[in-house]
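Continuing the batch. This is chain 6 of the set; chains 1 through 5 are on the previous pages. Same settings as before, nothing changed between runs. Recording input and output for traceability.
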Amino acid sequence: MLRIRHRFSQALRQHHTYYRGHGGQRFNSNVNVKVHLAAASLSATLSTLAFKAHCEQDIPVYVAPVVQPQEILATSPVLAVEDEIEEVDSSYWGYLVRQTKKALTNIGHGARYLERILTYLVVGAPLAGLMPANYVLGSTFPELENATWGYLVWAIQRLGPCFIKMAQWASTRPDLFPPKLIEKIEKFQDDVQISYPMSVIENTLRSAFGDEWKDRLVLSPKPLGTGSVAQVFQGLLKSAGASSEGVQVAIKMIHPHVEQLVRTDMELLSMLADWVDKMPSMEIFALGDTVKDFAECMNQQLDLRLEASHLVKFAKKFANEKWALFPKPVEGFVTRNVMVETLMEGTPISHFMNLPSEVGSATHKLKMKLSDLGTRLILKMIFFDNYIHGDLHPGNVLVQVDPSGDARLVILDCGIVYSSKSDAEHQRLVDICFAFMQHDGRRAGRLMADTANSKRPDTVKNSEAFCEGAQLL
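Output for chain 6:
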């Protein structure tokens, strides 16, 4: 850890932070990093005294239990069914009953898969014509391009959480996708169009907290935001015995039936990836491993007790960094499907990213400040903490600006977290990041290729071309 901290200090001294200003011009920050960080930290500490009073209201402290996530991706063949752990009847009739149960289970799997595949085909069929037509004629007929991307957005939303999560990732990659598509799918960062009756919401709260949940919680009917797997409402956590007084909170609820939908998508995608991996020369893509990683990310978001434990850990790791804030889970109001946390107000960081600014203006200085805070946030997670927020798209980052102009980052949706499993793995991650910060893409590429080769020997091909590509980035 001392070595990693030393490398972090080196990185801060050598790293040049670039800011994109009005007209696309890049600006280089050459300020003394240590003085800058100390001054910013002191300023943020002084400016958060008023906010501290709000945070220290009488809210029960949440103690995170040890939660083992439930697997959503089958590790055995689809047609295999685990034998029951009960006493096994070895008679002919017992054998017949077991085989009948297996057959019925397999029929259920098959029906579920068939229904989902038909949904893929029906929803995706129009894209088979729209995408080629848009590629050829989109620049000539803007209406065709708008119709294509509009239908794609509708299809993604119709297909559910796994596709929405992939769209969220794609919305952060303007280097890979057309600008108009990015503009369309950015809505998935915090405004997924999913709604269900208030009776369903109340039943979810009743299942989580009992019939008396209305004695402690007041729920606003309009959601604050909707994501791929959950929806967030504003609410009031009433003090014991009080009728109207209380603390403003956010109430996060998993969408109904979302776990079964995610499980089905992941199993089908896993079967497809395994089939592709068996094709000659396709094993180098390791699609099976990619699907498993994606399934693990989705799995983390389906249990809000995990997110609550992540929030507690982040709060401890950033306890001395007043420029970064995380919601606090409320003790007694955290279950698998529902979590009550402190309400964090702020402006989406994308609002500031899109503001035009001139060099030296107040807006430009604020944007530079936010860039600095974002860099510090990521570097601390990677170098110091080995505890990295895995879903930091702009919809999960809010900004609080006080009257004096000081800014703080509010980090939301901490369901997906990455942590290296060993010191050696963490050191490799640090070395790769350090190489990129020194603008040495070739070394970063070699480190990534060596890591991949150590996990899957003899699968790395054209490593030199990969390293050159990393250098071009």
